[in-house]
């Protein structure tokens, strides 16, 4: 198959590289000259474990190329994926589709022969219909099928998620498009990953409903964590106990500082708005969003409480800034709100993150950055674990204790058993359990 990926951001690049790895002939296109130049020079602009190697191998094998212009590769393509950004529109929370429609028009202009155009970007229900209308009315001579094929990639695990998916959702009822999509995913099909075909609108909604459900699970367990603290119960054991019920499942039940990232906050908000517009409000998701917003601020207050109710002039060392480990992504990271609350309270904030400091510098206010956990913990009045990077899982507490001003550890990800930290003389605060 000859495949073009329009948009070489996170989703486009991972999907394009993995499809080339399946043996397809892939061109990743992007309007950003800087990005394409970097990619052509062998530099991968995002941090994703395994991605650089796949890109290198497939470029070497001649199956993966990059381009600033889409016309030539699209004219030769069997399938064109739209993987451009759909940011939240300023003011109303709806997804901004201007990049999607602009890409669709440019693609239609260029296609020749039967071509399948696939939305990979997360788009509101009905976007596929609108793209089809644009094609029909503005490009009547073109033979194009419009398909929805949402991605379910997790940052930090995107390559595995792409190659070993729980399912592949494909929204189309067009027989020729079904055949082409089967061919695109044939290597996975042999891997027994289920291809789930449905109508285009259903497919578009599956993506939002899946993310909303997962976000709801997280907000649920976060509220249970608060209740555990009041009742003297242990949220990790509650999560395990309910998760053993297969109807509930044990995934996405880790209590913490709230969800962040490029998907959950944006997609839950967009779904809530769509549901309201259609007079069918999703009250559970409205509440999920509100719980998460409050959660992040509450975690700032939790740190202040752990410091005796006042952080003015105190040094707080923040371990982990990205919204989760194994990514350099700072979008909607809980650390932003936690740090703001601490700065508002007059704290002196020092921070360290293995990959996120470059992005953080542009987003956070008066934060001092350090080279490792021990450097920033020197003379600190508290160490706060905000993101559960592996390198924070085996901290040398003896060493920390010697250099800190006050022995306080706030573990917002519950990565330590209380006893392991408190045996070194620390006051240890976690989420939803004693300690
Ligand atoms: C998510 C979806 O998982 C993926 O299918 C979709 O395509 C994009 O959005 P991602 O944003 O990369 O992926 O991260 P994910 O691992 O899902 O975590 C999202 C947020 O939830 C993170 O901030 C994480 O720390 C938080 N989280 C996750 C919890 O707080 N508790 C959990 O149990 C799980």
UniProtKB/TrEMBL annotation:
Signal peptide: none annotated. The active site is at 263 (nucleophile). Pathway: Nucleotide-sugar biosynthesis; UDP-alpha-D-glucuronate biosynthesis; UDP-alpha-D-glucuronate from UDP-alpha-D-glucose: step 1/1. One of its GO terms (biological process) is polysaccharide biosynthetic process. It comes from the Bacteria. Its EC number is 1.1.1.22. NAD(+) binds at residues 30, 35, 86, 122, 155, 266, 331. InterPro entries: 6-PGluconate_DH-like_C_sf, NAD(P)-bd_dom_sf, UDP-Glc/GDP-Man, UDP-Glc/GDP-Man_DH_C, UDP-Glc/GDP-Man_DH_C_sf, UDP-Glc/GDP-Man_DH_dimer, UDP-Glc/GDP-Man_DH_N, UDPglc_DH_bac. Pfam families: UDPG_MGDP_dh (PF00984), UDPG_MGDP_dh_C (PF03720), UDPG_MGDP_dh_N (PF03721). Keywords: NAD, Oxidoreductase. GO terms for molecular function: NAD binding; UDP-glucose 6-dehydrogenase activity. Gene3D superfamilies: Cytochrome c1, transmembrane anchor, C-terminal, NAD(P)-binding Rossmann-like Domain. PROSITE patterns: PROKAR_LIPOPROTEIN. It catalyses: UDP-alpha-D-glucose + 2 NAD(+) + H2O = UDP-alpha-D-glucuronate + 2 NADH + 3 H(+). Belongs to the UDP-glucose/GDP-mannose dehydrogenase family. This is UDP-glucose 6-dehydrogenase. It comes from Rhizobium tubonense.
């Amino acid at each position: 198959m000859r495949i073009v990926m329009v948009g070489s951001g996170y989703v486009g690049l991972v999907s394009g590289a993995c499809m080339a790895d399946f043996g397809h002939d892939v061109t990743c296109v992007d309007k950003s000259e800087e990005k394409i130049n970097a990619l052509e020079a062998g530099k991968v602009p995002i941090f994703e474990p395994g991605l650089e190697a796949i890109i290198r191998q497939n470029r070497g094998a001649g199956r993966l190329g990059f381009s600033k212009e889409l016309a030539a590769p699209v004219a030769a393509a069997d399938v064109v994926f739209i993987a451009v950004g759909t940011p939240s529109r300023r003011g109303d929370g709806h997804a901004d589709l201007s990049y999607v429609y602009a890409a669709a028009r440019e693609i239609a202009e260029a296609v020749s022969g039967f071509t399948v155009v696939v939305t990979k970007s997360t788009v509101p229900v009905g976007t596929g219909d609108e793209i089809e209308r644009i094609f029909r009315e503005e490009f009547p001579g073109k033979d194009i099928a419009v398909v929805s094929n949402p991605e379910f990639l997790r940052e930090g695990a995107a390559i595995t998620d792409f190659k070993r998916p729980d399912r592949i959702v494909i929204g189309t009822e067009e027989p020729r498009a079904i055949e082409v999509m089967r061919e695109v995913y044939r290597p996975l099909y042999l891997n027994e990953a289920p291809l789930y075909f449905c109508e285009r609108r259903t497919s578009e909604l599956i993506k939002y409903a899946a993310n909303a459900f997962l976000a709801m699970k997280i907000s649920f367990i976060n509220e249970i964590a608060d209740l555990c603290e009041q009742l003297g119960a242990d949220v990790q054991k509650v999560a395990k106990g309910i998760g053993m019920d297969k109807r509930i499942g044990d995934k996405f039940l880790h209590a913490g500082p709230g969800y962040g990232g490029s998907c959950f906050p944006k997609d839950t908000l967009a779904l809530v708005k769509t549901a309201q517009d259609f007079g069918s409000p999703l009250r559970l998701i409205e509440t999920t969003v509100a719980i998460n917003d409050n959660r992040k601020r509450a975690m700032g207050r939790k740190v202040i409480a752990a410091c005796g109710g006042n952080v003015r002039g105190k040094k707080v060392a923040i371990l982990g800034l990205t919204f989760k480990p194994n990514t350099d992504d700072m979008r909607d990271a809980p650390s932003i709100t936690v740090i703001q609350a601490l700065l508002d309270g007059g704290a002196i904030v020092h921070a360290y993150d293995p990959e996120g400091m470059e992005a953080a510098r542009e987003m956070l206010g008066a934060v001092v950055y350090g080279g490792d956990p021990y450097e920033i913990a020197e003379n600190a009045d508290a160490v706060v674990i905000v993101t559960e990077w592996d390198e924070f899982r085996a901290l040398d507490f003896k060493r920390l204790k010697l250099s800190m001003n006050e022995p306080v550890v706030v573990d917002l990800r519950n990565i330590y058993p209380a006893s392991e930290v408190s045996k070194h003389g620390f006051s240890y605060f976690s989420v939803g359990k004693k300690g």
